[in-house]
Amino acid sequence: MSAEPSDPRGRFTYWRLRFRAWRGTRPFWAGLLAILSGVPIVYFPYAELKLGHLTLTMATTAGAGSLIIGVLLATLGLTMWFQSIVRVFAGVATIMLGLVSIPVANIGGFGFGFLLALIGGALSISWAPGRPPGSDEEHDDRADDRSDKHAAVRQQTFAPDGGAVDHGTPDGGGDGPFLPGPSDGDPNLTETTAHANGGRNSAG
User: Fold this and answer.
1) Where is the composition biased (Basic and acidic residues) (predicted)?
2) For residues 201 and 192, is the Cβ–Cβ distance under 8 A?
3) Residues with Cβ < 8 Å from 49, sequence gap 6 or more?
């Protein structure tokens, strides 16, 4: 059973949302500009401009080169849409073709095609896929776990015999540095102990 709504307004909203989701997973605007950049590059060498009774034709020996560049730009734009994994290569190739079109295709389609190829290639290189929802929360949970582990390690002290003793929260829950006090019956510790209570020393 299809989830597509039956009324025209709901159907339009359905396809609009699907197109938005499809557009968000790829460098859509970069591909669109790359495709559009090939239009003036291909058009001007084969166009016939009429000024009154005078007809101007710009079809020169560069017409074949302009056609090849325009077709390649359109192909790279489609590649950005349907194979976004190679978006960096497609963006670099689009910029290079835009530069090549300056001496080959009537100054890059009188600058229009060159500028569109330059912007589209830059957008393709700089585009990156977004993070799925909930990834930030998972990242925060992992950071909290790491901080808890580090806090537990800082609360662990070492006895003179080489064993580890966990004294819980440093200084009875305070925020100051933890200095271990003497243990009962331990001859290796002196009677003078340093306490972290305000940084004062006391004699036992």
Assistant:
1) 134-151
2) yes
3) 55, 56, 57, 58
176 backbone dihedrals φ, ψ, rounded to 5°: -80, 175
Q: Quick one: residue 52, left, alpha or beta (phi over 0 = left, psi -120 to 50 = alpha)?
A: left
Query: Under a CB-based contact definition with an 8 Å cutoff, are residues 71 and 159 in contact?
Result: no
* DSSP structural state of residue 203: E
* Residue 93, both tokens: 């190739």
pTM of the full structure:
0.59
Residue 166, strand partner residues: 156
CB atoms within 10 A of CB 69: 25
Q: For residue 180, with 0-12 CB atoms within 10 Å meaning exposed, 13-18 middle and 19 or more buried, which class applies? A: middle
Mean pLDDT of each 10-residue bin along the chain, 204 residues long? 66 89 91 94 78 66 81 94 92 94 84 93 90 60 57 50 51 49 51 47 46
Amino acid (one-letter) located at 100: V
Distance CA 70, CA 41 (A): 6
CA 38, 94, 110 angle in degrees (round to 5)?
A: 45
φ and ψ at residue 201, rounded to 5 degrees: -100, 140
178: left (phi over 0), alpha (psi -120 to 50) or beta: beta
The two tokens of residue 87 are 């978006």
In angstroms, the Cα distances linking 119 to 5, 66, 99, 127 are 38, 19, 12, 12
Asked if 102 and 62 touch (Cβ cutoff 8 Å), the reply is: no
